[in-house]
């Protein structure tokens, strides 16, 4: 924007730092959110993160110098990172397995809707004289932060978190509300009782298997809990969470979202309005591509969508790289090639929208058991923001050196994602959170199977299931 560029002229590296400082703050927020989620609940942690985000947004909108802007983006990033970890964690814990993937995919739809709204807000205000051209889009983001924080006050608490805290009666009330049952119905609803008992079984198993020295809140126990993510029992799950976020970022999606106009200009389309309109279409394409993912993610499964998406993404990037390499010295005589490259960008975006976009938020929330879920999701989200930070920092520098090399890098990452999705990722569709041990064939699940069976018998879960089967 004219006023912003004149007020604060910046180099490509400074542009990268200004973009990436938000991701650095998000990395911190994602890592620490798990502690607050376990101690103070998922809902209250979301509310606190909204407050942090709104403070950061205020700093940005009222910035008088670059330091204010950088500080505001860092503070706002802490809130963004925390929310990106807390939201899928909360949604995974309140949803039944048959619709969990679709509900979590709704987060990606909302993210993309925010991207579209944010981009076009900036596009509309870009011609306003003076600093309001950029202060308005930086200030308007406070509104959804406030709405989310206030909205959480009326949401039900996570029944799994309540069970973890020993508040079984409150957990049943919350579960009844989530499954649209009255309080009277919840006392006699066998399916509701079974779901609650499954949560209690998992909690009891966790406490018996992993409680150390009788200290559940000490620093050493907390440290051991984080270390357990890298133990043999959890290593495969941790890799799934960390790598899905790695490939989500190195697919190149945020490079397009952050630096769309720069990338579009690098393939020969000139003029601010043309480049902004073309790059703005990226968000719109992604928004519509996420919709079929919401509908089919639980029906088709995670693996087929990831394999299809990564193969199309890799081919799209490579085709763009070849066009740039062939025609970058004379785009004026090959306008058709530039528009074919734009088509490749849109094809990539659509493939991302039905695959790694939504599934990146689904898998980490599915694969970890209750006691490790907040930490596992936090580590996975930290992987997202760490790689997001690198993308934001390095992309403008790489583009300035070689646009074709930029697309080749993303193509190679998408090809590796295809191999990983094909040979290393288990299918988690329609698997309950309590049954995830069987999917991973984890040693912990095998070692604890007899303990779990005993707990199920002690709590009456087996008897309840048998009675329900006999009634049918």
TrEMBL record:
It is found in: Membrane. Keywords: Membrane, Transmembrane, Transmembrane helix, Transport. The chain crosses the membrane at residues 16-37, 44-63, 69-91, 103-124, 136-155, 238-259, 274-296, 308-327, 339-364, 376-399, 405-423. Residues 1-429 form the Major facilitator superfamily (MFS) profile domain. One of its GO terms (cellular component) is membrane. GO terms for molecular function: carbohydrate:proton symporter activity. It catalyses: myo-inositol(out) + H(+)(out) = myo-inositol(in) + H(+)(in). It is a multi-pass membrane protein. Gene3D superfamilies: MFS general substrate transporter like domains. It comes from the Eukaryota. The keyword Transport applies. The keyword Protein biosynthesis does not apply. Belongs to the major facilitator superfamily. Sugar transporter (TC 2.A.1.1) family. PANTHER family: MAJOR FACILITATOR SUPERFAMILY (MFS) PROFILE DOMAIN-CONTAINING PROTEIN-RELATED, PLASTIDIC GLUCOSE TRANSPORTER 4. This is General substrate transporter. It comes from Coprinellus micaceus (Glistening ink-cap mushroom). The lineage of its organism: Eukaryota, Fungi, Dikarya, Basidiomycota, Agaricomycotina.
């Amino acid at each position: 924007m004219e006023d912003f560029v004149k007020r604060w002229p910046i180099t490509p590296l400074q542009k990268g730092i200004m973009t990436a400082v938000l991701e650095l703050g998000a990395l911190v927020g994602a890592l620490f959110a798990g502690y607050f989620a376990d101690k103070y609940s998922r809902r209250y942690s979301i509310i606190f993160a909204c407050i942090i985000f709104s403070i950061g947004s205020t700093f940005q909108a009222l910035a008088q110098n670059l330091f204010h802007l950088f500080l505001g983006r860092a503070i706002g990033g802490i809130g963004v990172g925390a929310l990106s970890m807390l939201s899928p964690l909360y949604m995974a814990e309140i949803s039944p397995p048959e619709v969990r993937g679709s509900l979590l995919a709704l987060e990606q739809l909302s993210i993309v809707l925010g991207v579209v709204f944010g981009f076009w807000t900036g596009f509309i205000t870009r011609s306003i004289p003076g600093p309001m051209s950029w202060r308005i889009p930086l200030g308007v983001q406070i509104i959804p932060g406030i709405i989310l924080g206030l909205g959480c006050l009326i949401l039900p608490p996570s029944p799994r978190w309540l069970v973890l805290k020993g508040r079984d009666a409150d957990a049943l009330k919350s579960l009844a509300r989530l499954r649209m049952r009255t309080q009277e119905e919840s006392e006699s609803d066998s399916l509701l009782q079974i779901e609650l008992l499954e949560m209690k079984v998992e909690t009891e198993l966790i406490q018996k298997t992993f409680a150390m020295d009788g200290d559940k809140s000490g620093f050493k126990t907390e440290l051991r809990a984080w270390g357990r993510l890298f133990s043999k029992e959890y290593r495969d799950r941790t890799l799934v969470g960390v790598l899905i976020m790695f490939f989500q970022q190195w697919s190149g999606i945020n490079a397009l979202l952050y630096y769309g106009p720069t990338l579009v200009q690098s393939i020969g389309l000139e003029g601010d309005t043309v480049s902004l309109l073309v790059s703005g279409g990226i968000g719109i394409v992604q928004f519509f591509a996420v919709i079929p993912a919401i509908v089919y993610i639980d029906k088709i499964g995670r693996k087929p969508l990831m394999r299809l998406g990564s193969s199309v993404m890799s081919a799209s990037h490579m085709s763009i790289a070849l066009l740039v390499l062939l025609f970058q010295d004379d785009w004026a005589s090959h306008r058709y090639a530039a528009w074919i490259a734009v088509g490749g960008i849109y094809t990539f975006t659509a493939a991302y929208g039905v695959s790694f976009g939504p599934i990146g938020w689904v898998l980490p929330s599915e694969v970890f058991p209750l006691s490790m879920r907040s930490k596992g999701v936090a580590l996975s989200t930290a992987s997202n923001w760490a790689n997001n930070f690198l993308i934001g920092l390095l992309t403008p520098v790489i583009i300035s050196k070689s646009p074709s090399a930029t697309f080749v890098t993303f193509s190679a990452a998408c090809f590796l994602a295809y191999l990983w999705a094909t040979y290393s990722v288990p299918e988690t569709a329609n698997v309950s959170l309590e049954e995830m041990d069987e999917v991973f064939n984890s040693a912990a699940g095998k070692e604890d199977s007899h303990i779990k069976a005993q707990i199920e018998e002690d709590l009456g879960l087996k008897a309840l299931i048998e009675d329900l089967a006999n009634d049918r």
